[in-house]
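Example 3.2
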Amino acid sequence: MQKILITGGAGYIGSHVTKELLKRGEYEITVVDNLSTGFLETIERVKKHYGDFEFIELDLSDWQAVAKLMQKNRFDAVIHFAAALVVPESVENPLKYYLNNTANTANLIKECVRSGVGKFIFSSTAAVYGEPASIPKTGITEEDETQPINPYGRSKLMSEQVLKDTAKAYEGFKYVVLRYFNVAGADMGGKIGQSTKNATHLIKVAAETALGKREKMYIFGDDYPTPDGTCIRDYIHVDDLSSAHLEALDYLDENESDIFNVGYGRGYSVKEVIDTMRKVSGNDFVAEIAPRRPGDPAILIANSSKLRQKTSWKPQYDDLELVCKTALEWEKRL
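Structure, written as tokens:
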């Protein structure tokens, strides 16, 4: 039975991937999280509904504790989520992002090499592409230029480079980088979802506003070069994103390191998302226009054909109404 370490497994995406691994029943799982943005309740819900695993409260900035953990357990694979991920905050507090997202990741990779970890799945982001000069109708590919426009994107791209250089230097260490586009929705089983406090994710904020948890929400900029003036993003259901991690693990059994975009290949504007949430909730809530946020590109749409061609990944929930509905149902339970 493969031993897998999941960092940030008490968080939104990490908990959904933990759930999917448990459903397979083929792994001995250890989850670490410092609970700064993750929740002990999420860990307990995953254990109750999907199966048992070891949970350790640990901050990756405690390099000594990380070294002890890795040497003691001798994991076969690491799936690394733990990171700070709010773009405006990264502009205001870049050092937090470089220390947490890059330095701690580099140290984790070092300990993987020291303890003989063979497979590393890295949670990256479409923010590494920055503001592309033009986006083809088929979306951004992995070969497109990486020019991040905020410290969040740069901190993740630096970690990607550490992985590339490490895999070249050390035989037996392989990685898959998954560049996420916009993740949304909740567990199709309704047991877990996004519990983040003061969330900035559009679909969660819209669900909170639809249920009256917020008096109103804001549209940050309506003067972008898009059909309705608001930013366009590729929204992927969290369970589809989770299944891509299992495919990445399988991929490394027979293949060399690689980088994959994970998205649906279609985009929706902020106004379209809000209108969809209004429709599924039956509530015509208030969305006010506000100034642009620093670091927001106008359009980000994934071309995920490489992932589909090289693995068996087949998304199941490519439907904006379904994504919004699962987010709304989870928000009701919170």
